[in-house]
Amino acid sequence: MKKIAILILLLLTMLIPITAAASDFSSAMNRALSTLLGTGYVPAAATDIVYSMDQQLLELLGEEYSRRDLRIVITVPVNIDNFDKTNTLARQMAEEVANKLKEKGYRVFEIRRATDIEITPRKGEFLLSREQHKLFKTALNIELVMTGTYTITDRSVRFNCRLLYTGSYEIIASGNGTVPIYNEIQPLLDEIPEEEKIPPVLAPSVRTKL
C-alpha cells in the first residue's frame, strides 16, 4: 500500500508543470489529479475559473441572493492581442465554464438557440446556430455576461475570464486558469485568419434585471 502511495505522488509530481509558481501549487495539483483521473486539463482549468468566480459572487451578494437568482450568458474568450481572433480551445473553455456554472446552480442561458429544429438527412437534428436570421428572437433578463481573454505562450494557454454586470462596465467576479500545451491541445490553438472571418452577427437583446 505504501509503495502505491509513493507511486501516485511521483506521478503527480511529473504531471504538475514545472513552471507552476508556489502560489499556483493548489491549482496545479488539481490539474494533475484531473489528468491522472482522466478528466483532462481543460475541465480542470474551467473548475479553477468557476471556483474563483463563485467565491467572489457569494461573498459579494451575501444572503440576499442564491445562485439561482443570477442569470448568466456565456461568450467565447478572445486573443488578448486581437479581440477579433479566437480558437477552438477558447470555444471549448466557454462550454466547460457554462457547464460548471450550471452545476453550481446558476441560471445559464443559451443565446445560440435557433427558432426551429433543423432536420438534415444523413446529418442529424440541430437547434444551435450562429446565423442571425435563424436565431430565436427574444429579449433576455440577464444580470451577468461572461467574457474573457487568453494568452498563448510556448508552454501554456492562460485564460482570464470575468463576469460583467450588464448595466455597467463593472466586473462583478473574475477567475483564471491555465492549460498546458500538449499534443491533444495543439490542433485547437489555430486561429481563423482575418481574411477568412465571417462578419459578426447581432446577439439577442439583453435587459438588466439586477
Computed CA radius of gyration, to the nearest angstrom = 19 Å
* SSE-based structural type: alpha/beta
| Low-pLDDT segments | none
Number of helices: 4
- Biggest sheet character: 6 strands, mixed
State the end-to-end CA separation: 54 Å
Q: What is the averaged pLDDT score? A: 80
How many β-strand stretches?
10
Tell me the fraction of residues in β-strands, as a range.
25-35%
**Secondary-structure element order, N to C:** HHHEEHEEEEEEEE
Helicity, as a percent range: 25-40%
Which term fits the overall shape? globular
What do these coordinates show?
The chain has 210 residues and is an alpha/beta fold. The protein is 30% helix and 26% strand. It is built from four helices and ten strands. The strands form three sheets. Strands 1, 2, 3, 7, 8 and 9 form a six-stranded mixed beta sheet that branches. Helix 1 (2-15) crosses helix 2 (25-36) and helix 2 (25-36) crosses helix 3 (41-61). The longest helix is centred in the N-terminal third of the chain and has 21 residues, at 41-61. The chain is globular, with a radius of gyration of 19 Å.
Give the secondary structure arrangement, pairings included.
Blueprint: H1 2-15, H2 25-36, H3 41-61, E1 71-74, E2 78-79, H4 88-104, E3 107-109, E4 113-120, E5 124-128, E6 140-141, E7 144-152, E8 156-165, E9 171-180, E10 206-207
Parallel strand pairs: 1-3, 1-7, 2-7, 6-10
Antiparallel strand pairs: 4-5, 7-8, 8-9
Helix pairs in contact: 1-2, 2-3, 3-4
